[in-house]
Amino acid sequence: MGSKERIARLKEETRLNILDAALDIVKDEGWQSLSMRKIADKIEYTAPIIYEYFANKEGILLELTRKGYIILAGEVRAARDKHDTPEVQLEAMWVAYWNFAFKYKELYQLMFGVDMNCCELKKKMPEAELSDDLIWDVIEKVITVENPTEDFVCRKYYTFWSIIHGLISINLVNKGRDAEMNQRILKDAIRGIIKYINE
């Protein structure tokens, strides 16, 4: 490996270390506690080195948000690909969405502004649409109405998203039920929407 490749690899490792440190701080102290100084202290660098990789805290938040959307899309896609019928795919995809929210709680909070001041980061990246598009495509397959309008499909997508996001938000701020009850509520909601999706 040449010196240019080694330098590039080291720079990428440092960039990833900065992002990992930011996420570790958030897991321990919450999003409001994140600062460039704390990140520098965590990885034992000076703050100016952090600024060589990210212009400001928003740059770090943007990159973590992008990472979250990429992971979410991958998990939604994997859930879809395990099933053959659109109705079962749709349920599996929303359950994967739910599971992502609790497996990657801090990323979900950042991506969707739960229990924090929401950044308008979603508008700045194409990755934000990856999971939305996957779910939208399966919703269209479940709809049996002839030539549904985009508004009709959009309404169904937002019906699903509102319910699922609402349930996740309730649970992220610790006001939900136990895990078994949450799964029943989640599946009842998904199946109920699928049952009446053509109305």
TrEMBL record:
Highest taxon above the source species = Bacteria
Q: What is this protein called?
A: TetR family transcriptional regulator
A Pfam family of this chain: TetR_N
Keyword list (alphabetical) reads: DNA-binding, Transcription, Transcription regulation
Q: Where does the HTH tetR-type domain start and stop, copy by copy? A: 12-72
Q: Which residues bind DNA?
A: 35-54
The reply to whether Transit peptide figures as a keyword in the UniProt entry is no
